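Let's do one together. I've listed all components of the complex below, 693 residues spread over two lines.
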Amino acid sequence: MFHWESTPLTGLSFLGMVIGAVVVLLIALAVVTYAIYFERKFIGWMQLRIGPNRVGPFGLFQSFADILKLLIKEDVIPDKADRIMFLLAPVIAFVPSFMVLAVIPFSSTHVFTAGLNVGVLYYLAISAITILGVVLGGWASNNKYSLIGGMRSAAQMISYEIPLGLSIVGVVLLSGSLNMNVIVAHQAKMWFIIPQIIGFVVFIIAGLAELNRTPFDLPEAESELVAGYHTEYSGFRFAFFMLTEYVYAFALAALATTLFLGGWSGPFLPSWLWFVIKTAAVIFFLFWVRATMPRMRGDQLMSFAWKVLIPVALFNLLLTGGLYLL
Amino acid sequence: MAELRSEEMVLNVGPQHPSTHGVFRLVVTLDGEQIVDADPVVGYLHRGTEKLAEDLQYTQIIPYTDRLDYLSSMLNNYALVHTVEYAMDLEVPARAEYLRIIVMELNRVASHLVFTGTYLLDLGAMSPFLYAFMERETIVELFNEICGARLTYNYMRVGGVKWDAPAGWLQKVRDFIPHMREKMRMYHNLISGNEIFLDRVKGIGVITQEDAISFAMSGVNLRSTGINWDLRKNVPYGIYDQFDFNVIVAEHGDCLDRYWIHMKEIEESLKIVEQALDKISEGPVLGKVPKMIRVPAGEYYRGIEGSRGELGVYIVSDGKDKPYRLKLRRPSFVNLQILKKMLIGQNMANLIAILGAVDIVLGEVDG
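Okay, and this is what the predicted structure of the assembly comes out as:
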């Protein structure tokens, strides 16, 4: 089996790495573009509408039109904004979202995957940087809505990072490794969703909160805070924030697939296709929740994380540890 | 430890804000996320309906009432023509009375549907809004058939209604009732048991009975506090005394109760429509009305149970064909007065839940 970490670093292998990274980047962009399209289409159908249908056949090019529109818009920077931080915030939020994709095993060949020993830890650590971008964006905008939105986001994301991490520890205990490739290999006989069902539930809930998606989309509670931390952002900087969110949706779905749903493994079909199917199923679930649920309230959200999710995740950890010892 | 400097923040919500349901402005003073003061600013949609009415003949005023609470124009039409009929002591043909009841109760259903949909939208759930509008669309289409308009119906006249129901219309209404009941089950499945929804509305925005009375509240807001008061039952007007329906009363006075009353009232209204369809007979739809409608000199007040509360029309007439003064008791405006008291001390996140549950329509608030 091919592994980047077992190949010596030469000019050629470096080139290979760069090509691999660029391919992953392009795939992620394509996924995001069509995730947005399908989200609008699916939610449209669920709500008795038809969704986008004007640009291209079945509206397939709607997302491209939207991106193009955002790119040619004027880049407004408010007078009172903290200029440097205002410009920096979207980048800080956006870059980690692509960095986390490096450790996701997309298929059995590992050409596009860094088989990092601490892959899970890497994902959690890098994704935490995004919070900084969100808070900075909210602060630097010098706008009340942005500030409240940014603060809410920070509080929410930090709180939910803990149950998210704890729910993953169960998987790590079972597989005995932080390397995502090894975790996938361990699920050859049984997907971890079965022994780790509690962990999976906690993971999905905390994941929804991490993604700022309904029912945890408080930071952008339209009815209260206009657009939350990105109220003042327009044009392609706004696009960056949106992109961040959708890349994380993809990354989290990929992570759920890898950790709980057996990753790329599956019979008959090629491994990458299995990965696509499972990831798409998780992403579809995110859309479905969005079409169904109302939004939670800030304080309820916090007490839910600290009083319900974390104890449940800890209990799951205890259970897993106990069973593992037996 | 050094004292941290903190200051209150003034947040301006509206008039261009997604969940003020129109052009309503609220200046909120925040201490952290807690509301310490709230100052509602109304009047952005003021059109001076009452003043305009002084220069209009009574029939000409009817289209203006459409634009008050534009979600229940039929009820507004009725409030005016009913008061004029009461003042002139006019007889209304039986068929017209039944047609009025049918359209008014259907309109109440449509209005309550909009409440449910927009309230859930305020709370962050998108789908109920579109589902509710789907059902409302059916009602609006029915109205379109009977009076040719989807929103501003201008359907009623002093002494009856303008148009008789077209052929097959009553059957369509009859078919709609079981369909709507079926849909109500879906709403309850989707919304009423949702844990997140319950968490957000239970015990929020509580109105006490004393407050409700001293703020002259009416309609759903009053009934949510446990006071059994519905003008259709307590001061029957028209032919409402012929129908068998329940007045829905809750006890806690919180936002959840207000949501529940809206939902239950849809079912009660369907009951009334069903009974009216059974009783309606053939006949004229416009009674014998003098060519020039002149209200005898004097002062007249009639209140009806609008979809948002007591909708009253007060006519001061000096015997001419135009009112000397027309005063509209607009329930949204009256119910809105308690908002400040309800908001102070609340968390910012509850603001939308509370404002939404009061169920205002800005056309009616601003007159």
